Amino acid sequence: MLTITDAAALLQRATDRRGRIAVLRAMGFDAPAGALDAPTLARFQLSNDVRRVEVAAGNGTLRAVLAEVTPSATLRDAAGRLARRLAARAPEHLWFVLAAQRQGDAAAVVPSPGGAEAAGALLINPRAVLPGDAEALCALEAARSSSDMETHLRWREVLGRDALTRRFYRDLEQAVHALADGAQGSADLSTRRTLALRCTSRLLFLAFLEAKGWLDADRAFLSRFVAETGQHLHRRFLEPLFFGTLNTPLSQRAAAARRFGRVPFLNGGLFARDALEKRHRLLRFADADVAHVVGHLLTRYRVTAHEGSAEFAEAAVDPEMLGRAFESLMASEDRRNTGAFYTPPAMIARITDIALD
Hints:
Layout: H1 4-12, H2 17-26, H3 38-44, E1 50-57, E2 62-69, H4 75-89, E3 94-100, E4 106-110, E5 119-124, H5 131-142, H6 148-158, H7 161-182, H8 189-211, H9 221-229, H10 233-246, H11 255-258, H12 275-279, H13 287-300, E6 312-314, H14 319-329, H15 332-338, H16 345-354
Parallel strand pairs: 2-3, 5-6
Antiparallel strand pairs: 1-2, 3-4, 4-5
Helix pairs in contact: 1-5, 7-8, 7-13, 7-14, 14-16
């Protein structure tokens, strides 16, 4: 059985055909026998986005496809189309697709039998493998059984939204509660949890911007500044970033804010103190708990601004999943009393807008 370390190493080496075949072997497939010929490709009516397609046999009717996607194509879309087309044109097989581009990025896709339901997918960057990616590969390998249908169903569950939502909610809840429980200042537990949830939601929003390269063009921006700041993270990192930088036009930023580099101005109140925060300005979250949110929660899961669709369900945290998780964490009495959820609609809308830029 694969360990997390073994799985991460496999994904890191999946930058070429040999490395990707090793991933397929770990999942119980033989090595591909060779590329499909032109008549066979014509039968599947594959798009021009796919150049080379190889098929590997697995247990029973399980089949794996190793495919090369053209550099100009969007990997996510091309891999999804390929998986659905295979499932629809050859429903006698249960498919697992590993599609990749020459620059190294790959997509593992498990379409439903016949392609009628959403395909579960995992997008992989071998140069930046996340713990969640390695955990997913471990789960795929462990899901193998003597039954091809059971194995395929388990794979779809591993890469499906429900399993990811449960894992993400569990880790989010633990992170928020740890922030609240470790906070220093005169506030009751309910208030501390509300403030902890707001802090975490802002950091998660920034994770979406970070993934797009919009935080000083650094996809490790948050982790870097946590490490550089070291101590007093609430006062020296969170407050200057939230209220002195993101909530302040570039021309009005102080020197302490300019150290964050090219960071956008986000108006609309997402990073403005509300009445509750103003009443508890002296409350401070513990360094270890802030570092845990940035170094564990934000780096464990891949984030995407693309929401899941009826055809494609990526194993990544998207705006819809984020919103539902925050709604679930709201105190039940607050929901009953106000009929509202904390998750700011503007925040979710902003994340969705990222996908359009």
